[in-house]
Amino acid sequence: MPTYKAPLEDIDFVLNDLLQADNLTKLPGFEDATRDLVSSILEEAAKLCENELQPLNRPGHEEGCHYENGVVRTPKGFKEAYQAYVDGGWQGLSMDPKYGGQGLPHAITFVLEELLISANMAFAMYPGLTQGAWNAIHTHANDQLKDTYLPKMTTGEWSGTMCLTEPHCGTDLGLIKTKAVPNDDGSYSITGTKIFISAGEHDLTSNIIHLVLAKLPDAPSGVKGISLFLVPKFLPTEDNQPGQRNGVMCGSIEHKMGIMANATCVMNFDDAKGWLVGEPHKGMRAMFTMMNAARLGVGMQGLGIATVAYQNALTYTKERLQGRSLTGAKEPEKAADPLIVHPDVRKNLMTIKAFTEGARALGYWVGIQLDQADHNPDLKARAEADEFVALLTPVVKAYFTDMGYECATMAQQMYGGHGYIREWGMEQFVRDARIAMIYEGANGIQALDLVGRKLGQDMGRLLRRFFHPLAGELESAMEDTDLLEFAGPLAKAFGKLQQATAIVAQRGMKNPDEAGAASTDYLRIFGLVALGWMWLRMVKVANAKLAEGGNGKSGFYEAKIKTARFFVQRLLPEVDFRFKALMSGAKTVMDLEADLF
Amino acid sequence: MEIKSAAVIGAGVMGSGIAAHIANAGIPVFLLDIVPQAVKDSGGDRSVVAKGAVEKLLKGEPAAFMHRDAARLVTPGNTEDDLEKLKDVDWIIEAVIENKDIKHALYRRLDAVRKPGSVVSSNTSTIPLEILLEGASEQFAADFMITHFFNPPRYMRLLEIVAGPKTRKDAVDTIRKVCDVRLGKGVVHCKDTPGFIANRIGTYWFQAAVNAAEDLGLTVEETDLVTGKPMGLPKTGTFGLLDLVGIDLGPHIAKSLLSTLPEQDDYRRVYRENPLQAKMIADGYTGRKGKGGFYRQTKTPDGKRIRETIDLKTGAYRPTVKAELASAKERSLKGLVTHSDKGGQYAWKVLSQALAYAASLVPEIADTILDVDAAMRLGYNWKQGPFEMIDALGTAWFAEKLTEAGLPVPALVTLAAGRPFYKVEDGRLHYLTTQGEYAVVERGEGVLLLSDIKRASKPVAKTASAALWDIGDGVLCLEFTGKMNALDDQVMALYRKAIEIIGDGTSGPYKALVIHNEGDNFSVGANLGLALFALNIALWPQIEQATAEGQQTYKALKYAPFPVVGAPSGMALGGGCEILLHCDAVQAHAESYIGLVEVGVGLVPGWGGCKEMLYRHTYNKKRPGGPMPPIAKAFEYISTAKVAKSAFEAKEMLILRPTDGITMNRDRLLADAKAKALELAKDYKAPEPLEIRLPGPGARTALEMAVEGFHGQGKATDHDVVVSGELAWVLSGGDTDITTVLTEDDLLDLEREAFMRLVRTPGTIDRIDHMLSTGKPLRN
User: Fold this and answer.
1) Which residue of A has its CA nearest to B534?
2) Of B325, B533, B780, which to mutate for an interface test with A (greatest number of A Cβ within 10 Å)?
3) Which of A440, A473, A479, A574 is catalytic?
4) A253 domain-assigned
5) A553 and chain B: CB distance < 8 Å anywhere?
6) pLDDT digits (tens, 9 = 90+) for B335-387
7) What's the pLDDT at A307?
8) By CB count within 10 A, which of A195, A280, A322, B714 is most buried?
C-alpha cells in the first residue's frame, strides 16, 4: 500500500522563504492570513489528507462507484470522509465570508489542492467541482441565486458540477444542442444530454447544483449563442431545503481508465427547471470563470500525483535491494545495494524531485498572483497580476499535467514488475494522472490558448508580466558569481524562448497553422523556462539561508542547490531540442495528404 | 491671363473660407461684406463684418489658414466704401446670400467697377447660371462662371465649375488652372443643372439612406457602421456626416432642388418630409455646430462624459451602443449588398437607388463618368465614385438585380452591356464614354500619379513593406506599402536596396530617388505594434539593432551619391518625419502635417531626428547667437511633439528648408518632386558632414529645470520629466563640453542610448501600449 506524507517543510520553504506569502496580509480582507495561521491550517490539512483521505485511495480505486436506477453510490468510506471534510470547514476556506466562507487567500487552496490530490484525487474532485461552480455563480449570478445557493455550497452541504460536454461535442462547444426555453416565472426549462459530468450524481451531499450550458430559442449560432443556467437536483423549498426533485437524472456512469472513485456521469435534463446565470448568450464568459480556476486546479493535480508517486518510489528505491553499484558495493554488509545507488534510478528520482519542487514554487506563485488580481486595491497592480495568471494558466495546466503523468510512469518504472501489480498502487497514480492531461481543455488546446490567445493579446502585453521580471532578474544574476552557473543556462534558454515567441508570432500571423504546429513545443519551452526561473530564485534563497548558517536545515538548502544544478543541466536542455523542432515549422507536420496516412 | 489678385464678396462661412484659401495660395485677396445697419445707425467700424470673419478664421478649427502669415494677404473691407478697390482685381468671387435679386444687384455694381477681362464667378450652390445672368451685359456674361467650393474650402478638394454658353473659353481655362494648380482643387466641369453634380447625387443619397434606415428599422449606429467602411461612403457614416455638415442644410437644398429639378426626376419619388429632423432643427439640434445631432456628447448626473445617440423611432437620446452586423465584416461590396442581414439589405437598398440615379444623370449633368466619380470622391469623401462602385458589383449583375427589383436600368448601364465602366488596357486606365466606347483617362499636364505607373509597370524591387517604382527619366520612387504605411525593417531593407540599385547615380540607368506614396498619410511612423511586441518580450538587443539600422540607413540615404527627394502628403510623423529630414530636398503637399511626435509614446526620435533638428537649428542663419537657442528650439518642438499643421508651418519649424517646395495639388506632387530630383541630379554632390559642438551638462540642467517648472505647474507629467530628461541629454550632447567636436555618429549614439534607456521604462511601455489599444496618447 502506498503512503503519503504532506511535504510541509518544502511547502513552508516555498510559501514563506521564497514567495513571502506573508505579504498577502497587506491586502484588504487577508489581514488574518498570517504565517502562523496558515501553517496551523496546513498542519490540519495534512492530518486530514494523511489519516482520512489517503487510506481510502486504493480501496476506492478498487471498488469504484456504483450505479443503479439513476442513483450513484460512492465507495465505502467516502461519505464519512466527505463529512469530515465539510465538518472541518475545508470547502469554504477561500470563499467569500458574505456567504459563510473563511475568505482566506487562494494561495492556501492551491496548497490544499495539492495535498488533497496527493492523498486521494478521485475524492478531491468532488469538492473541487463545487469550488468551480461556486466561482461562476459568485461572479455572474444575480443576488437571489447567490443568496439561495452559495451558503450551502460554501459549507459543502450542497455540491456543484459543470455540465458542458455533449455526446457530439466537447472542445467545440458552439455545437451544443441542449435547449433552454423561458418560462413565465422567469425560470427556464432545460432539455438535453450532457456527458462526462464529474460528480454529476453521488451520495455525498443532499443536493447537487448543476451549471449547464444551453441555447436559448433566439440564440445566435456558435459560441456566441451559449447561455449558462443553474439547475439544482432538488428545487429548494421556501426555507431553502432540498424540495421537489427536478427533471435531471443520471443515465449512467462511465467505465474509465482512472479516477475510479469519482462518478463520471451521463446527465439527462428533461424539462429541468433552471435559472439564467449572467447575461443571455454570454455563457462562455461565465464558463471561463469556472474553467480558468479549474485549469489551474488541474495543473496542481499534476503536481500532486507526481509528489505522491515520488514519495513512494523514493521509499522503495531506498529499501529494495537489487544489484550492486557500478562503482563498487555501497552496502557490502547486505546482499545487494538499494536501488537508489543506480544512476538511472537516481536520474528518475532527481527528475521528479526537480519537477515537483519547481512546480510547487511556480504553482503557489500563480496562486498568490490570483489573490493579488482579486484583492490588490491598486487597479493597475490588479490588472497586471490578472494578466500574469492568464498567461501562466495554460502553462501550469498543460506542463504540470504532462509532467505529472511522466513522473507517475517514472515512479512506476522504479518498482520494476511491482509497479505493474495493482496492490503496490503505482498503476493507480499512472491511471489517475492521465485524465488531467485531457479534461478542462486537453493539453493541445492549452497550447493553442497560449499561442493563439495569450501571445498576441494586446501586442504581447501578457507576456510582459513574465518576460520583464525574468529579464531583469537574469541581468542581475549574471553579475553574481554564485548564481552564474544557474543564470547562464537559464539566460540561454530564455533567449530561445524570446526567439521562439517572436517567430511563433511572426509566422503565426501569416499562417495560423504555423502557430498551431509550434504550440506544444512552445508551451513546453515556456514551462521549462518558468521552472528554471523558480530554481534560480530558490538557489538565491538557499544561498542566503546557508550564509546565515542554515538554521539547522543546511541539508535541505544544500539539496535545493544540488537539485537546481540537476534541473539546469539535465532538464533545461530540453529547451534546445524543443526549439529546434519548433523552428522547423509546420511544413513537415502538414505536408502529408490525409489519404496517404 | 494670370490671377494676381482676387476678391471675395460675402464674408460668411464659405466666402471667408474661400478668401483664406486664396491667401494660402499666396494671392492677395479682398474680403468684402456689407456695412451692418447698426453701424450705419450708430457708427463704428464699417468693415466690421469682414474683419470679424477674418478674426474668426484665425481662431477656428480646423484652421482655414495654412500659416498665420497668409492672413496678411486678406484685406477686409465693405461693399459700400471699398468696391472701387476691385478695379485692379483679376478675379472676383461672389459668395453672398442665395438670393438672385441680391446677386443681380451686386453684379451690376461689380460690372461698373471691375476691369475689362477680369473674371467674376459665383459660389452659388443652388441658382442656375442662366438665372444669375438674367439682365447681365454681354461682356459680363463672357467673363462670368460658377465656381462652387465645398465646405471647408481649404480642406474639401472638389471645385465645380459651370460655364455658360457665353463664357470666354480662356477665362474658364484661367480659372480652372488657378483652382487646380494654385488652390490645389480637383476641378470638375459641370453642366448648368440643379445642384450641379455632387449635391445633386449627394442629396439624393442622403434621402435614400435615411429612408432605408427608417424602412428597414436600422439604428443610427447600424446605419453608420454599414455606410462607413463597408459601403465606402464617408467614414463618419450617413448620420455622422449629417451631424458634421449640419442637419439644417438639408431642407434648404431639398427645397431648392424640388423647385428646379425636372418633373420626372427620381428625387421627387424618394423625397420625404422628415418630422424628426424638422423637430431637431427647431430645437437647435442641428449637428456638431448645434446642441448635438444624431449623436451628442453629454454628461451623466455624476459628471461622466458619455456619448448618446438618437432613437430614430422615438426621437429620444439613449447611450450610444456599438453596432454589430455580420454584413459589415464583408470584404467586398458585392458580398455586402448580397448579405442577408439587415445591413446587407440596407446597403443594397441604398446603393441600388443612389448608383442608378447617378448613372442616369450622365450626360445630363456631366459629360463623362469621370467628372461624376471625381465629384463624389472629392466632394462627399466617397471612397469610390458611383461608376467605380457599379464596376465593383459588375455592370451586368447590377443591371440584372435592378431588373429583378423592378427598378429601371439607366441607359448608360445598358450601354455598357456587361462591360465595365473602367478598364486597364496596355497599362493605361480607360473609361466608357457616353458613346459606348472606351477612351484613355488623360491626366493633365504636370500630373503624375503613382497609381498610373503601378498599373503600367512592375516594381523594380519590393519588400513586404515597400516597393520601388521606375517613374521615368532615371528617377525611382520608393513607396511605403505596409499597413498605415508603417515603417519597419522591410522599409529599411528597400532603402538599402535602392541605394544599391541607383549606385553612383551616373553609370547606371537611375540618377535620383523620390520617396512618395498616395496613402491618406505619408507615414505615421515606425510600426509600433511590432516594436511593442519586441518590448514585451524584452528583446532589447534586437530593438537596439533595429534602431541602429534605421539610423545608418537614413544616414546612408543622406550621403548617397544621388539626390533623394521626399514628397509627403498628409501626416508624416516620427520616423516618417525623420526620413524627410534626411532627404536632400522635400517637395511637400501643402496639406502635410509633419512632426517628431515620439515623446507621445515615451520615446525620443531615434532614427536621426534629434540630430537633424539640431543641425537645422544650429545652421539656421537667422538664429540668435550662442549655443543655447538651437538646442532650445529643437527641445521645444520635440518635447511637445509639435506637429506642423501645413507645409508652410513645417518651413517655419525648419523641418522643411527654405528651398524646399510646396505643391498645392496632391495630383501634381509627384511630378513636382520628380522635377526637383532631376534638377538636383545635375552635377549632384552629396552634402558635406557638418560639425557640431554642444555645451553638455550645463545646457541639460537648464532644460531640465524648465521641465521641472512645468511639472510643478502640473503641465508636465511624471513620465514627461523622464522623457524630456533623456531628450535634454541628447540635445545638449551628453557628457560633452563646448570645445569637443561631435560627429554625426556621436549624435546618433546619444539618441540610441537615450532611446534604449526609455524603452525599458514602464512609463514608456505603458504609453506605447495605450497608444496602440486606444489610439490616444497616455498622460502618465
Assistant:
1) A502
2) B533
3) A440
4) yes
5) no
6) 999 999 999 999 999 999 999 999 999 999 999 999 999 999 999 999 999 99
7) 98
8) A195
Ranges under pLDDT 70 in chain A: none
pLDDT at A1: 85
Co-location of A458 and A583 in the same domain: yes
- The domain total for chain A is 3
- Render pLDDT for B153-180 as a digit per residue (tens, 0 to 9): 999 999 999 999 999 999 999 999 999 9
User: Class assignment of domain B198-362?
Assistant: mainly alpha
In SS3 terms, A254-323 reads as CCCCCCCCCCEEEEEEEEEEEEEECCCCEHHHHHHHHHHHHHHHHHHHHHHHHHHHHHHHHHHHHHCECC
CATH T-level assignment (fold) for domain B6-190: Rossmann fold (3.40.50)
Domain termination site, one of A282, A305, A335: A282
Instruction: Report CB contact under 8 Å: A502, B539.
Output: yes
Boundaries of domain holding A536: 453-588
Cα(B595)–Cα(B124) distance, rounded to whole angstroms? 38
Of B529, B539, B769, which has the smallest distance from its Cβ to A498's Cβ?
Answer: B539
Beta-carbon separation of A464 and B535 below 8 A: yes
Cell numbers given for A377: 486595491
Q: What is the CATH number of the domain that holds A180?
A: 2.40.110.20
Contact B540 A471 (CB under 8 A): yes
pLDDT recorded at residue B246:
87
Shared domain check, A218 and A114:
no
What pLDDT was estimated at residue B549?
96
Listed in sequence order, the DSSP H helices in B340-470 are: 342-360, 369-380, 386-393, 395-404, 411-416, 450-456
Residue A180 sits in the same domain as residue A135: no
Mark whether A135 and A164 lie in a shared domain. Answer: no
Best probe of the B interface among A459, A473, A533, by most B CBs < 10 A, is A459
Question: Is A464 an 8 Å CB contact of chain B?
Answer: yes
Active site residue A114: no
So what's the pLDDT on residue B234? 81
Does the CB of B771 have a partner CB in chain A at under 8 Å? no
Q: Does domain B450-597+643-681 sit in CATH 3.90.226.10?
A: yes
CA–CA gap between residue A582 and residue A500 (Å, rounded)? 8
Q: In terms of Cα–Cα distance, which of B381, B378, B373, B376 is closest to B441?
A: B373
Taking residues B611-639, what's their average pLDDT? 94
Please answer yes or no on whether B536 and A461 come within 8 Å at the CB atom: yes
Nearest to B773 among A458, A464, A498 (CB): A458
- Nearest to residue A571, comparing CAs of A521, A537, A541, A527? A527
